[in-house]
Amino acid sequence: MRTPRLASVAAAAAVLSLLLSACGGDSGSDVAKVDENAKEQFAPGSRMKELADAGKITVGTKFDQPLFGLKGLSGQPEGFDVEIAKLIAAKLGIDEKGITFVETVSANREPFLEQKKVDMVVATYTINDKRDMVVDFAGPYFSAGQDILVAKGNPKGVKGPEDLTGLKTCSVSGSTPASTIQTKYPQAELVLFDNYTKCRDALGNGQVDAVTTDNVILSGYVDQAPDKFELVGKPFTEEPYGIGIPEGQEAFCDFINKTLAEAQENGDYAKAFESTAGKVIKNTPKLPTPPRGCDK
Ligand code: GLU
Predict the structure, then answer these.
(1) Residue 1 lies in a domain
(2) How many distinct structural domains can be found in the chain?
(3) Nearest Cα residue to atom 9 of ligand 1
(4) How far apart are the CA of 214 and the centre of ligand 1, in A?
(5) Interval 169-174 mean pLDDT
(6) Last residue of some domain: 231, 266, 288?
(7) Relative to the CA of 144, which ligand 1 atom is closest?
(8) Which of 24-28, 33-37, 234-238, 252-256 has the weakest average pLDDT?
(9) With a 6 A CB cut-off, is 180 part of the ligand 1 pocket?
(10) Which of 82, 141, 135, 89 is nearest to 113 (CA)?
């Protein structure tokens, strides 16, 4: 068990300028280049060596979030989180065929890591103290912020979380946005589902007045149906995304951070973003630095 400490992602701007393009949609990319000599590079007994020797890795991700993790007709999830997972796998010498993507909804990310059902989670996963008590985090690799999605035309005039008072506000069990509403904006009438698509659909058919979660997730839903939804566009939290791994794998955490730093350096991080979320979110971010460190 590690000492809880909040990751300070100080200057990492939660305020992303979200410019929605007319046409979007995810697609896979071939950014990740598999390191054929990976096996020889890792110390015997290390987690990296185990994974490299197995030639397989199981990754928890979202299956219903456009831009970051969306399983479409191809049967394989696509998005920025998926590309980040592929970059890490490639450094372990594991190609796409060796990656098994498992759906992790918000509430089962910690349990899946604790039960070792997955080797890592890349799933719009905010680093925070509570989670850090039971899992470890590499990264952050991205910084989002909580925002609000409303019906087109914003019929209830929602300008920020204060305006959610008395409004049916949908979010997801086990997520940080849900707990922010519960603790800071209890006047909102919180409705919980297990994934954000259900919230989006509830907003679409008028069962709820608003959906709240990270701006980049909501942007994906606006991109899919710009005639139905709009984003309030004023993020009010910082959501630094980390890569969750089981506790006690510090060398693996360091390896992931090194892989991310290299990807920033050689352009793969930008390519991973631009081929996925960047089709809608026009500002390509830089990898937040410094990494929070794996010794916490
Ligand atoms: N980033 C937030 C979280 O980890 C919201 C997104 C999500 O639920 O995946 O809880």
Answers:
(1) no
(2) 2
(3) 124
(4) 7
(5) 98
(6) 231
(7) 1
(8) 24-28
(9) no
(10) 135
Do 160 and 215 share a domain, yes or no? yes
pLDDT digits (tens, 9 = 90+) for 247-271: 999 999 999 999 999 999 999 999 9
Domain of 262 in residue numbering reads as 21-144+239-279
Q: pTM of the prediction? A: 0.90
- If asked whether residues 157 and 130 sit together in one domain, one would say no
Residue 192 located in a structural domain: yes
Q: Is residue 291 part of a domain?
A: no
Q: What is the pLDDT of residues 192-231, one digit of tens each?
A: 999 999 999 999 999 999 999 999 999 999 999 999 999 9
Residues 121 and 178 in one domain: no
Same domain, 90 and 47: yes
Beta carbon of 42 within 6 Å of any ligand 1 atom: no
Measuring CA to CA, which residue among 105, 271, 261 is closest to residue 194?
105
Question: Residue 48: CB partners within 8 Å, gap ≥ 6?
Answer: 38, 41, 42, 92, 251, 252, 255
Indicate the top mutation candidate among 68, 183, 213 to test ligand 1's pocket, ranked by most ligand atoms within 8 A of CB: 213
Residue nearest to atom 6 of ligand 1 (CA): 124
Q: Is the CB of 172 under 6 A from ligand 1?
A: yes
Which residue's CA is minimally distant from atom 10 of ligand 1?
175
HEC readout, 204-267: HCCCCCEEEEEHHHHHHHHHHCCCCEEECCCCCCCEEEEEEECCCCHHHHHHHHHHHHHHHHHC
How many Å lie between the centroid of ligand 1 and the Cα of residue 217? 9
Distance, CA 63 to ligand 1 centroid (Å)? 13
Among residues 204, 231, 258, the one where a domain terminates is 231
Is 295 contained in some domain?
no
